[in-house]
Amino acid sequence: QEFCQQIPKVELHAHLNGSLSNKTIKKLLDRRRDLKISTAAFEKGEQRTMGDCFEMFKVIHSLVDSTEVIYEVTKDVIEEFSADGVKYLELRSTPKGLVESGMDKRRYMDAVVGAIRDYKHDNDDVIDVKFLPSIDRGRSIKDAQENLKLAEEYSISCEDIVTGIDFSGNPYTTDAAKFMPVLQGAQRVGLKSAVHLSEVKDRSDETRMFLSVPPDRIGHGTFLTDEEDVKSSVLESRIPIEVCVSSNIASNTSPPEHIKHHSVWWMGQEHPCVVCTDDKGVFSTGLSSEYFIIANALSLSEEQTLKLSESAIDFIFADENMKAKLKQIWKESKKDEV
Ligand code: 5GP
C-alpha cells in the first residue's frame, strides 16, 4: 500500500462531484443545514446499489449549487489527488445551470477552469490538470449539444485545459442512440472522447454503435466480453479501458472478489488498461488503493506496478510535450527506487 502511495500516478477517470471527500461534503453539509438533506444513501456503505449511487449524486448536486462552491470543491479535489501522488489528472464534470444562484453552464466551466489554473499557479506546478466537460445521457439531446458547443469553444480559448469530452450518466437509460451525432460531432472538431461503455448488462447493440465512432478511451467496459464480436473488435482496436474496480463492486456490476474483475482478463490479454477511481468520494477510495487492489489481484511486483502507472501516460488527452514531461517524472522516480 505504501509503495502504491509513493509512486507517481495518472488519474484519467474522475467525476468531479463524485470525487468530493467526506471532509468536503461535511463542510458543505454544515454550511447548508437549511436544506435538511437526507444522508441515507451515504450511510448504506457496501449495501449500496447503482441506484443509491445516483441518489448520492443528487444530494451532492444540491450542495454544489454555486460557482463559488464549484471553484472551492475543484481545488479540494485537486489537492487530495495531488496528496495521493497524482501528477496528472483529468477531471470530468457535467456543466450545469441553476437559476436561483445565477450559475449558468458557462460560469460553471469558468469556475472549474479557474480553480485548475489557480491551483497550479499557487502550488508550484505540482500537478497538471485537464477538464473534460461531460455529456449526461440522462438529459436531453439539447443539453448534450450545448455541452459539446461549450467544450469546443473552451478547447480553443483554454486549449491547455479543455481537451476532450466525457459521455456518462445513468447507464440504464435506453435511448442513448440519440447521442451518436454529438459523439461524432466531438470527433469532427478534434475533441478526444472518453465514453462509458457496457457498464451494465445487455447493452451490446448500444456498445457496437458507440464503438463505430470510435471513442478514444472506454469507461468501465464491464460487460464487453459478453459478446464475441464486441470483445474481438475492442481487442483489435487497442482502445484503452479505464478500470474502476471499487466503483464497479460498490455499484454491484462486478463480483466482490478482485480477481474476478473484468480488467484481470483484459490485462491478461495485454490490452491497454488504466487504473482509475471513478468517484473516490462516493466509493470511499483513492488512486493508491485502486493500484494496491490491482497489484494484489495480478500479483504484480513493485517494478511492474510502476510500469503500469507509467503506461497510462500514453493515453492522456494531452500533447507530446506533456507526455515527455510526465515520462521525465517517472524516470526520476525510478532513480529514487535504486
Ligand atoms: P459531475 O458531472 O456532477 O461532476 O459528477 C457526477 C456525475 O457523473 C453523475 O451525476 C453521473 O452523471 C456521472 N457519473 C459518476 N459516476 C458514474 C458512473 O460510475 N457511471 C456513469 N455512467 N456515470 C457516472
TrEMBL record:
SUPFAM superfamilies to which the protein is assigned, alphabetical: Metallo-dependent hydrolases
GO biological process: adenosine catabolic process; inosine biosynthetic process; nucleotide metabolic process
Keyword Oxidoreductase belongs to the record: no
Catalysed reaction, written as an equation: N(6)-methyl-AMP + H2O + H(+) = IMP + methylamine
Annotated keywords: Hydrolase, Metal-binding, Nucleotide metabolism, Zinc
GO molecular function: adenosine deaminase activity; metal ion binding
Cofactor: Zn(2+)
Pfam families, per database record: A_deaminase (PF00962)
Residue span, Adenosine deaminase domain: 8-327
Family indicated by similarity: Belongs to the metallo-dependent hydrolases superfamily. Adenosine and AMP deaminases family.
Assembly notes: Monomer.
Record's protein name: Adenosine deaminase domain-containing protein
